[in-house]
Design a protein that fits this description.
- With about 425 residues, the chain is α/β, with parallel strands linked by helices.
- It has three domains: about 180 residues, FAD/NAD(P)-binding domain, CATH 3.50.50; about 120 residues, FAD/NAD(P)-binding domain (3-Layer(bba) Sandwich), CATH 3.50.50; about 80 residues, FAD/NAD-linked reductase, C-terminal dimerisation domain (Enolase-like, domain 1).
- Helix content is about 20%, strand content about 30%.
- It is built from nine helices and 26 strands.
- The strands form six sheets. Strands 1, 2, 3, 4, 5, 6 and 19 form a seven-stranded mixed β-sheet that branches.
- Strand 20 and strand 21 form a beta hairpin.
- The longest helix is centred in the last third of the chain and has 15 residues.
- The protein is globular.
- It starts with 7 loop residues before the first strand and ends in a 13-residue tail after the last helix.
- The N terminus is likely disordered.
- Keywords: Dioxygenase, FAD, Flavoprotein, Oxidoreductase.
């Protein structure tokens, strides 16, 4: 039960109003939890879907109202109190109390930390100039969209991960001149094999993106507002606006300051419990020993992970504790390409290409000691669905047989 004080208090307080936080509140009510629930969010918005920000919303294909995870009436009907536009600045585990950025104090019985992360910022000179953007929140996108409406056309995207690539695809569609810079030798280098990287590099270049790999940024230049990006070789790219997509920093400082174990995120066990009593953590900010990466402690940044961990926590709170063991999956939409990924390719020792990338429908399978551990499927739903089942089976497969895309994956017999 919440601490017995005169402060505001709730049986469950969820910090973070993104996918994980929303799903935790939903799942608690679905599991029959009748206690009081409050959700604290830094943004003024009700919980909304994040992936469309760099896709349909940015491209003006979806209005913001269509991104709400649930309408306002739902949260009122389910008696979920929303404390929005505020952040948690301190956690007092012994007193079971939170301090908010507006000075309020909120007590909790059980705390669920679902804060995700903040965009990683550039550290070079000029990083704080106007016109330098992240793509993490509605406000980020609205500001950038306003600048494009105002005439910004030369856009430099720093970072060749999914956020940067998705933003480049939409900007190109909007008629902008896009230069994408990746410091490593290929895009998606941390999450995909070279076959997929080469495919997306070609796609973006074919669509007019000036995509450069192995490029280091020296600084951003401008007076008050960015107007150029200076590279390490001394050359300068004109820039009406800059998008920085170089990852996130887990938003866990108050928990770590309160004594929670962690570093790159907050450490949790297989039920998403932190080292502090009655405090759980889920989603992008939670580091756990992943069964699908041979027990490596890691964070998984995906909607699937946030939602499934939220359900895991709701079950634990309502007395139906089950360990978290969901298979990770992801997706990315760029141009008319739909990428679907199942599993984690970390530690793979072989990749197998299924199909011809030139057809724009193919898959890359990732093996580790002969076991299928992940698959990337581009415009290939059958390979994704069937490959996912084989990954869940921890199937040992023949690389030579896998390479024959004329044979459906469902016909492969695990060794």
């Amino acid at each position: 039960m919440p601490a017995q004080t005169n402060e505001e208090a709730h049986d469950v307080v969820i910090v973070g109003a993104g996918h994980g936080g929303a799903q935790c509140a939903i799942a608690l009510r679905q599991q029959g939890f009748a206690g009081s629930i409050a959700m604290i969010g830094r943004e003024p918005e009700l919980p909304y879907e994040r992936p469309p920000l760099s896709k349909e919303y940015f491209a003006r294909e979806k209005s913001f109202e269509r991104l709400y995870i649930r309408p306002a009436a739902f949260w009122a009907d389910k008696a979920v109190e929303m404390l929005l536009g505020v952040a948690v600045t301190a956690v007092a585990p012994a007193a079971k109390r939170l301090t908010l950025s507006d000075g309020r104090s909120v007590g909790y019985g059980t705390l669920v930390w679902a804060t995700g992360g903040e965009p990683r910022r550039l550290t070079c000179s000029g990083a704080t100039l106007a016109g330098v953007h992240a793509v993490r929140t509605r406000a980020d996108c609205d500001q950038l969209m306003g600048e494009i409406d105002g005439g910004a056309r030369n856009i430099v995207v720093i970072g060749g991960g999914y956020i940067g690539l998705e933003a480049a695809a939409v900007l190109t569609k909007l008629g902008c001149r896009v230069t994408l810079l990746e410091a490593l030798s290929r895009v998606l280098a941390r999450v995909a094999g070279p076959e997929l990287s080469a495919f997306y590099e070609k796609e973006h270049r074919d669509h007019g993106v000036d995509l450069r790999t192995g490029v280091a940024v020296d600084c951003l230049i401008g007076t008050g507002r960015v107007d150029g990006v200076k590279l390490a070789d001394g050359s300068v790219l004109p820039a009406d606006a800059v998008i920085v997509g170089i990852g996130i920093v887990p938003a866990v400082e108050p928990l770590l300051a309160a004594g929670a174990a962690g570093g790159n995120g907050v450490d949790v066990d297989d039920h998403c419990r932190t080292s502090l009593p009655d405090i759980y953590a889920i989603g992008d900010c939670a580091a756990f020993e992943n069964d699908h990466a041979d027990g490596m402690r890691m964070r998984v940044e995906s909607v699937q992970n946030a939602n499934d961990q939220a359900t895991c926590v709701a079950r634990a709170i309502t007395g139906d504790a089950q360990p978290y063991a969901a298979l990770p999956w992801f997706w990315s939409n760029q141009y008319d390409l739909k990428l679907q990924t199942a599993g984690l390719s970390v530690g793979h020792d072989r990749t197998v290409l299924r199909g011809d990338p030139a057809t724009r429908s193919f898959a890359v399978a990732y093996l580790k000691s002969g076991r299928l551990i992940a698959i990337d499927a581009v415009n290939s739903v059958k390979d994704y669905v069937q490959g996912r089942k084989l990954i869940e089976m921890r199937a040992q497969l023949s690389a030579n047989a896998l390479a024959d895309s004329s044979v459906p994956l469902k016909h492969h017999t695990p060794a």
